[in-house]
Amino acid sequence: MSIPLPEKARELEVDVLEEEAVSAAWRVLLYNDEVHTFDEVIWQIVKATGCSRSRAEKLTWQVHHEGKAQVFEGAFEACLKVESVLAEIDLITRIVG
Roughly how many angstroms between the first and final C-alpha of the chain, as a whole number? Predict the structure, then answer.
């Protein structure tokens, strides 16, 4: 049998759960398209994530051959920033948690 929490404790519990959800690992997925060149995608991944050109090339090949790739993982706010940079050239992305 569980003892009900007082209202203030329930509010605190919700705040903690919301904060954990925001800081939990989120992922940015990049999808293949037939519009952008490899060099455009590689450059934009480097610009968005700060990874090496070599890493961006591997991710771009993965996107091309598998249809998508996880290009970034982090807090939700960081994923939003990465996604916005990728969107500068209209790359197809999605944030998943």
Answer: 32
